[in-house]
Design brief:
Strand content: 5-15%
Order of helices and strands: HEEEEEHEHEEEHEHEHEHEHHHHHH
Distance between the termini: 28 Å
Strand order of the largest sheet: 5-6-7-10-11-12-13
Bound molecules: NADP nicotinamide-adenine-dinucleotide phosphate
Radius of gyration: 19 Å
Shape: globular
Number of helices: 13
Structural class: alpha/beta
Mean pLDDT: 90
CATH superfamily: NADP-dependent oxidoreductase domain
CATH class: Alpha Beta
Largest sheet: 7 strands, parallel
């Protein structure tokens, strides 16, 4: 067993034990000056931490990160920038240290928003971004992870993010035209140059995870994982555990569905919402999958949890190196989601939930067309 691997397991055991022993929230030792800027503080709370990755490639982060994409991209209504900056400040004040964005969100505008919002406490947080798409005239035009392009994207992202380094840089999708070793080698060079700290992949399959990790150890794999999409449990969790790679579930609430607030009458604004075209958000699929919401609601009602909280807590309960990044535009949802890190299931509760959920077959593919071809490669 390698030294890194041992450290990873040790960190997992220690964190697992501390998760059981300590409450999720404590006094925040580093509150921002947000109140001085006129931003309402929700409370001086601090979510507990988890470890992504192993040894010198690890990152300590809040147990739950904040996915910032929906503040400007793919989630219908775009709230005004000022209120989203205030929300990011609130997240920081509440103990969130992991913030997620990407070049392609917008494109560009989400990185600008996140860069502006996080500038006052840049050194105290973990900033994550991604490269890997070919963006032409503001539209996605396939993939591009050629080394020269990765370098160009990173230079532009650094400017938009108002920083001299990206803490965790992900390849957004595996590019079939560029060997993964070349991608990993380019990020390795960027790490040597100090422009990037850690490396991650998104939606990569087991083979590419291994190949990339051999060149530049990965800190995290960011892929879709929720009660509506549990495929990672079958294969990539094993390789993550073996190699000491953290797992960051994206869309952990299945783009809002698992909150129970989306129903068959919900209208998605097609110009800025991929749910308008995804099979899981048709009225038929929404109705057919409602049995999942029933399970979550029934479980939560007896314990004082919302469906969203049960859905997130279920992910936390799987492995100590899982760090979900739910997105929100609302302070109340941010608070609700953060509290889910404090929920601990008894073994019987987890077994009961698993049994109820395993009887359900989810209706509707998670992606179609080109998007479907670009995942799990
Ligand atoms: N690597 C990738 O390819 C990839 C792909 C997609 C996303 N991501 C990352 O993952 C992050 C999260 O993913 P996501 O936004 O697709 O899905 P998500 O986190 O599963 O869901 C976000 C949606 O759920 C709603 N929501 C959040 N908390 C809620 C609560 N407690 N109650 C009710 N509704 C709630 C939000 O609406 P409100 O604003 O109303 O709260 C939002 O519309 C993104 O921000 C992005 O950073 C990465």
């Amino acid at each position: 067993m390698s030294h890194d691997r041992r450290n990873f397991l040790k960190a997992g055991v220690t964190l697992g034990a501390s998760l059981l022993a300590s409450p999720a929230f404590s006094v925040n030792p580093t509150p921002s000056n947000a109140t001085a800027n006129g931003i309402t503080k929700v409370g001086k709370t601090n979510v507990k931490h988890r470890m992504l990755g192993a040894g010198k490639h690890s990152l300590e982060v809040s147990a739950l990160g904040l996915g910032c994409m929906g503040m400007s991209y793919h989630r219908s209504f775009v709230p005004n920038k000022k209120s989203m900056i205030a929300l990011i400040h609130q997240a920081y004040d509440m103990g969130v240290t992991l913030f997620d964005t990407a070049e392609v969100y917008g494109p560009y505008v989400n990185e600008e928003l996140v860069g502006e919002a996080l500038a006052p406490f840049r050194k105290k947080i973990i900033l994550c971004s991604k490269f890997g798409f070919n963006i032409q005239n503001g539209q996605m035009a396939g993939l591009n992870s050629r080394p020269v392009h990765i370098r160009e994207v990173v230079e532009q992202s650094l400017k938009r993010l108002r920083t001299d380094h990206i803490d965790l840089l992900y390849q957004h999708r595996v590019d079939p035209n560029v060997p993964i070793e070349d991608v990993a080698g380019t990020v390795k060079d960027l790490i040597k140059e100090g422009k990037v700290r850690r490396f991650g992949l998104s939606e990569a399959g087991v083979e590419n995870i291994r190949k990339a990790h051999a060149v530049q150890p990965l800190t995290a794999l960011q892929s879709e994982y929720s009660l509506m999409w549990r495929k990672p449990e079958e294969d990539v969790f094993k390789v993550c555990e073996e190699l000491g790679i953290g797992f960051v579930p994206y869309s952990p609430l299945c783009r809002g569905y698992l909150s129970g607030l989306i129903n068959e009458r919900t209208k998605f604004i097609a110009a800025n919402d991929n749910r308008a075209t995804l099979p899981r958000y048709t009225a038929e699929a929404i109705k057919a999958n409602w049995v999942i919401i029933d399970v979550l609601t029934e479980f939560g009602n007896h314990r004082g949890y919302t469906a969203a909280q049960v859905a997130l807590a279920f992910l936390f309960a799987q492995k100590p190196w899982i760090v979900p990044i739910p997105g929100t535009t609302k302070p109340a949802h941010l608070q609700e989601n953060l509290w889910s890190a404090d929920i601990q299931f008894t073994p019987d509760e987890l077994k009961g939930l698993n049994e109820a959920l395993s009887k359900i077959t989810v209706v509707g593919d998670r992606y179609t067309g080109q998007s479907a071809q670009q995942v799990r490669n």
